[in-house]
Amino acid sequence: MKKLSQKQIDSLLSDLFSLMPELKKNETEWREFIVKFVESRPNDAIDEHFREALLAEIRDRMRTRETGTVKSPHQSGWKALWWFVGGTAFAALAILPILKPWEGRMVFGPQTGKTAEQPKQFSAEGRDMFMLQEETGSPVENEEATVVNIEDSEDNAFGMLEKPEGAAASRMIEGRGGGGGGYGIMPPMPGPGRTNIDYIFEGTLPEIPEKVGVFQKKQDVDISLPLENQIKNLTIGPVSLRTLKNLEIQHLSLKENVEKLGFMVNLDLNRGTISIDANHQQWFPPCYGTQCAEVHKPLPMSDMPEDKTLIRWAEDFLREYSVSTEMFGDPIVQKYWERNPDQYIPEYAPDIMTIIYPYEIEGKTPMTQWGEPVGLQVRVSLKKERGAGLYFSPLDLTRSHYPALEEESILSMAREGGSDGVRYTNPQRTVEVTLGKPELQLTQVLLWDENGQEQTEYFVPAFVFPVEKTEAEGQDFYTPNQIVVPLAKDLFAE
Amino acid sequence: MPSPSVALGSPEKFETLYHDYVDKIYAFLFHKTLHRETAEDLTSETFLKALQHADSYNPQKAKISTWLYSIARNAVIDFYRTRKSHADIDDIWDIDGGEDATEEADRGKNFEALQRSMQKLKPEQREILTMRFWQDLSYAEIAEATGKSEANVRMIISRAVKKMKPDFCLFLLFPFLFLS
């Protein structure tokens, strides 16, 4: 049985009390607890025979490798490449054909040109989302590039994904107002005059798996750039950055140095995102008087090009910058006014329209809580009739399996308006609305930490029930288009 | 950037890695499985996989211990995934103890109390707690192994002990309450 020295116990206690001073008043209890805990340690000493046998096996395999009998798949081809690492995703940097931020030009892949030398990864997990290559003089194709990286974790690895303090209570409201989610799926609200809406599904649910995979988006990317050291040693006039401690590059802004219609590039190295935007100085130079009115004249909605035209502009833009869309689904033109048939159609078209090339996670398109697909966003300018930028936030995910909800719970949750439906505790009336057959989708769920400081993004398998519109005369309540019920049992523990 | 092969790939360096970490990785795996043979199998798998992928290890991306522990962690996950009887657990703490748990533990009621109270914790909390209290790893070492910051590790440990202590102490005082 392992015994702890007084010094070790003191050290453990000291750590504990420094973090939670309120525990110090029960120091004796805590001391006892730590001693008992440590004494409970099972006999985990390694067997010496096993240790030697495994070492012999390793030596044997190393000899085999040296004689070339077994060749690692990662042994060649990476010499000319540097790879940025950090578990993030930057395949979209491929869109920058050439940058010159520091000594030596860099070429980013994937591109559709021919490969001079196959890019090589040496990240531990075999990820291939962000790479940096020395210039080879021709575009680089990176067939292994990924835009969605999934790392498996243990079951229930994210713990109970509890609602923030008070959120559970907000589902039941006393009178008008109140409620609302704000952290997750858009809440179906109750009707006026304290009307509760029961969403009824009477059909047969699709088959429910025993467990569902929940995907958590990794928060910290933490990419370090090769130029970081040079920047840290930079001196401008009397100011030297060397005097500052532990500098990190968080954002990087670049500008295309061209005569007209150039782009600005913004990299967020903490989140691993890239945004390319029209350089407004060049795209929309300052104007005066009547000329200005003409330049900024809004386009009537009737002039909105067809989807296929918008998509063609996006495709041309992507082709021009060698951005491969092979790893994404078919493009979807984002038209918020078409999401809900009751929505007011604006009189004028937006200057910029967004086309989304959705991600695919295990064959499914992840959707935001507003029912939009998540993926590579390409912006097109209706006035310039061409691509005007893009935004890419790669998905670096950890997957953990959770038990799935049972049918009864699913129907009950659907009845109340989904996981985040809001209801009156003292309704004056209750009306019923029928739900159609649900589809299984991956739905984005955003949860704040207990301090409300950091938000974590999840993609959760969910049944999405279409709300069948009622034609009731004098209907005075609003219903959403769909009711979403996430299937992970512990997702909304209350 | 140093070549990965320089960082890890030479036989001497890999042997050094083995000697430095084999005890720690074995203990880590034993605490997750509470079964001697399984922990040995998984230890073998961890080091053989590490050897196989030595060329792909990138010291700029992760410290060697982070990389090695992540291989070990994945080995445990794969192990339970491939065994249908345990397909829905993350490690042995969620079921009625490993086959070697009681005899290896040699701790009688202490261990049982501990096991019951540890079940309340998240797998990550259990992992970090055993690394600190049983494997004697420093906060810095745990931070490296788990890829977390030291401050985060301290916070996780403090929260975990606070969460499990009431049950643990209750059982130690009144073990008959928990007899099944």
Task: Outline the structure in words.
The complex is a heterodimer of chains A (494) and B (180). Chain A is α+β, with helices and mostly antiparallel strands and 494 residues long. Chain A contains nine helices and 25 strands. In chain A, the strands form seven sheets. In chain A, strands 4, 7, 17, 20, 23, 24 and 25 form a seven-stranded mixed β-sheet that branches. The longest helix of chain A is centred in the N-terminal third of the chain and has 19 residues, at 48-66. Helix content of chain B is 69%, strand content 0%. Chain B is built from nine helices and no strands. The longest helix of chain B has 24 residues, at 150-173. Residues 1-6, 84-89, 94-99 and 101-107 of chain B have low confidence and may be disordered. At the A-B interface, helix 1, helix 2 and helix 3 of A face helix 2, helix 3, helix 4, helix 5 and helix 6 of B.
Whole-number mean pLDDT of chain B: 73
* Assembly of the depicted chains: heterodimer
What is the helix tally of chain A? 9
For the report, how would you describe the main beta sheet of chain A? 7 strands, mixed
Q: What structural class should be given to the helix and strand makeup of chain A? A: alpha+beta
Strand content of chain A: 15-25%
Low-confidence stretches of chain A: 67-128, 134-144, 164-187
- CA-based shape of chain A: extended
Shape of chain B: globular
> How would you classify the helix and strand content of chain B by structural class?
mainly alpha
Main sheet specs of chain B = none
Q: Largest interface here, residues on each chain?
A: A-B, 61 and 68 residues
Mean pLDDT of chain A: 72
Question: How many runs of DSSP E, i.e. beta strands of chain A?
Answer: 25
Total beta-strand segments of chain B? 0
Estimated share of beta-strand residues of chain B: under 5%
How far is it from the N-terminal to the C-terminal residue of chain B, by CA?
59 Å
Rounded to an integer in angstroms, the radius of gyration calculated over CA atoms of chain B is 18 Å
Radius of gyration of chain A: 28 Å
User: H/E series of chain B, N to C?
Assistant: HHHHHHHHH
Q: Helix content range of the residues of chain B, please? A: 55-70%
